[in-house]
Structure to design on (76 residues):
């Protein structure tokens, strides 16, 4: 059987899915440090830092231009 009836197996080290991870309570774990954008060799990541009332940083927006992304994995 093949996709879509049977999901495609993705190896654990597959670098094709880039997402912002979340805490168990649903909050984004990203602190908008900008390290992923700096590490990106093609510059396809853009984000804007914002701050909550208690002083915690979070990304106001986080965008990945997948038409430029080479899936190198340096942002992870």
């Amino acid at each position: 059987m093949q996709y879509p009836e049977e999901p495609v197996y993705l190896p654990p080290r597959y670098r094709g899915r880039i997402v912002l991870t979340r805490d168990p309570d649903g909050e984004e774990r990203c602190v908008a440090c900008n390290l992923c954008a700096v590490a990106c060799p093609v510059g396809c990541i853009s984000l804007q830092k914002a701050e909550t009332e208690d002083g915690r940083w979070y990304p106001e927006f986080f965008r990945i231009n997948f038409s430029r992304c080479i899936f190198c994995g340096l942002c992870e």
In short: The helical segments are 35-39. The chain has one domain: 1-76. The chain has a mean pLDDT of 87.
